[in-house]
Amino acid sequence: MQAKSSTVPAEPYPFELRPAECALLIIDMQRDFLEPGGFGEMLGNDVSQLRRTIEPNRRLLAAWRAAGLLAMHTREGHRPDLSDLPPSKKARGRSKTSIGDKGPMGRILVRGEAGHDIIPELYPAAGEPVIDKPGKGAFYQTDLELMLKNREIDTLLVCGVTTEVCVNTTVREANDRGFRCIVLSDCCASYFPEFHAAGLAMIKAQGGIFGWVTASPHVLAALDSH
Ligand code: TIU
């Protein structure tokens, strides 16, 4: 049975959840960002900050699938020939090892490499769309918008990493395209806790300038109550 509509506690005000019109969008839960020994850790980041989102995401994804709803996944990465990698992105950071180079889990942020793939805990199920994106936003140079329109989806439940980078960029892109966004605070994270907090604050400020923020237990409760 399709989950029914309900009101979910959220900031800056309650959110009308109409599950059939929603997609769960899980951003960039990739091995290179989350796993010890990956690119993220190689850059000096503390991956435990991101890893605490795995269990809430796993629980939410399981409930969402059980309700027969649409889940979508994104991965940040590039073609093996790097023809879609802007030179400015390649050069930035001045790191000895950069995108396209051999990293601890294959070539860094290159499609088809082990580190580019989604962590096993949240691996896409057969039939769940995976959006490969060259940038931070999930709409830029992808077919995400077309797929959402074709399925008459007008709302995104946004999860993933990192809050202030790919999650925020995607929410801003979605907002300008007329999609409603609700970000799940416990299912998102940053390597920098203060940026996570600021990233969420910026979304819900000014009456919900980009959307809503809630926590996954509220969505689980809404799915459960039918
Ligand atoms: N997915 C995403 O946010 N990509 C990043 O590059 N994040 C960083 O924080 N580096």
Using brief descriptors, characterize the structure shown:
226 residues, alpha/beta, six-stranded parallel β-sheet, two-stranded antiparallel sheet, 9 helices, globular, binds tricarbonodiimidic diamide
Q: Can you characterise this structure?
A:
The longest helix is centred in the C-terminal third of the chain and has 16 residues, at 193-208. The protein contains nine helices and ten strands. The protein starts with 5 loop residues before the first strand and ends with a helix. Helix 4 packs parallel to helix 9 and helix 7 (163-176) packs parallel to helix 8. Strand 1 (6-8) and strand 2 (15-17) form a beta hairpin. It has helices spanning 31-34, 39-42, 48-51, 54-66, 87-91, 144-150, 163-176, 193-208, 216-224; strands at residues 6-8, 15-17, 22-27, 70-76, 102-103, 106-107, 130-133, 155-161, 180-189, 212-214. With 226 residues, it is of the alpha/beta class. 34% of the residues lie in helices and 21% in strands. The strands form three sheets. Strands 7-4-3-8-9-10 form a six-stranded parallel β-sheet, sandwiched between helices. A two-stranded antiparallel sheet has the order 1-2. The structure holds tricarbonodiimidic diamide. The site of tricarbonodiimidic diamide (TIU) has 6 residues, from helix 7.
